[in-house]
Amino acid sequence: MGEAENALLNAKTLNSENEWLWRHFAKIHRKRKNFDKEIDALEKVNLFGKVDSYDLNMLGIAYYNHGNYAKAVEYYRLSLAESYDTAPLFNMGLVFNNPEIS
Question: Out of 11, 55, 58, 97, which residue is the most buried by the measure of CB atoms under 10 Å away?
């Protein structure tokens, strides 16, 4: 993981505005359970306007894991608007089934 992150940091110095770079950073941070950094990386992809339904769903999951349920639902809805997939609906159900919400 450390070598992969070093390679991505090197790529970041060469071209920090490429969405694939931030998607890979998000994957590394997700595996390390660093949700703040995962959210930051996926928000960069969103900032570039290159997000797809999967990215939006993953951003919702990261916000859910971070405990920000309102943002999670917001991104699940955006994901659903991009592509009709059952994953965002399932994840919305998890939010509304959470004892803190329901």
Answer: 58
Distances (CA, A) of 5 to 18, 60, 75: 16, 23, 26
Are the CB atoms for 92 and 79 separated by under 8 Å?
no
Per residue in 5-15, pLDDT (tens digit) is: 777 877 777 87
Over range 32-42, report the average pLDDT: 92
Q: Which residues contact 16 (CB under 8 A, 6 or more apart)?
A: none
Pairwise CA distance, residues 50 & 43, whole Å:
10
**Cα(35)–Cα(60) distance, rounded to whole angstroms?**
11
Backbone angle region of 67, left / alpha / beta, with phi > 0 → left and psi within -120 to 50 → alpha: left
Q: Rounded to two decimals, what is the model's pTM?
A: 0.85
Neighbours of 21 (CB within 10 A): 19
